[in-house]
Amino acid sequence: MNTILITTSSFAQYDKTPIEMIQKEGYSYVLNEYKRKLSENEVLSLIEKYEPIGLIAGVEPLTSCVLEKAKYLKVISRCGIGMDNIDLKAAKKHSVHIVNTPDAPTVSVAELTLGLILNVLRKISFTQENIKKNNWLRPMGNVIHGKTIGIIGCGRIGTYLGKLLSNFNCMVLGFDIEKKQNKYYLSVEIDELYEKSDIITLHIPYSKKNHHLINRNTLSSMKKGAVLINTARGALVDEDALYEMLISSHLSGAALDCFENEPYSGKLI
Length: 269
What we know:
Blueprint: E1 3-6, H1 17-24, E2 28-30, H2 40-50, E3 54-57, H3 64-69, E4 75-78, H4 88-93, E5 97-100, H5 106-122, H6 124-132, E6 148-152, H7 156-165, E7 171-175, E8 186-187, H8 190-196, E9 199-202, H9 216-221, E10 226-230, H10 239-247, E11 251-256
Parallel strand pairs: 1-2, 1-3, 3-4, 4-5, 6-7, 6-9, 7-8, 9-10, 10-11
């Protein structure tokens, strides 16, 4: 009854210090053998098999059904900020304490987002794939300089991204439900952000209220040739609508670090 179940897929992959800390405190641990986001049934299976007292979680669904079966679970430590994958009411009902690590992913996700923006604009991956196929294509890339970039969600990650972008001589617009003001972006309403942005990037948690926030209507309201970046939650984007907008060339590109259902096997590949 002293097992820590680690369901986040990359935990201690490059640094074994966290594992050593767990062992030093007298706990055993179980890593995510699938090395990817787990389904609800997979989480259930692991919990029933190992009966953990602690869970180090990623974004896998920790539903009321999962928590009902976790008879010995005392604490969930969420690696990241958002806790939309956890049924918080069920956790409270079963006296499971919830903590998160709000500052841990700030720099890495903001830098990843910047890298994806550069990748799409400069067509880096597209060029690499063609060279590997012996297709010597030289597509014309684009620059961030002078662009308008819209950040939806100006918390830790969105604000840090704005700071990074301040070095590129571009206009940064920000929308946040808390109407935050910051020196790294101009706070605007979301409709204005859709209308004016050359690049739109998502940095908000998921909830039922913002399911498919990016849909046919919102995509249609974006500038022709705009780019969409999503490093937040897959279910924020209607992937079928995004595919249609890319095929029709209304959007010039998109970069997604997450999908509504993973592993992804849809039309966007």
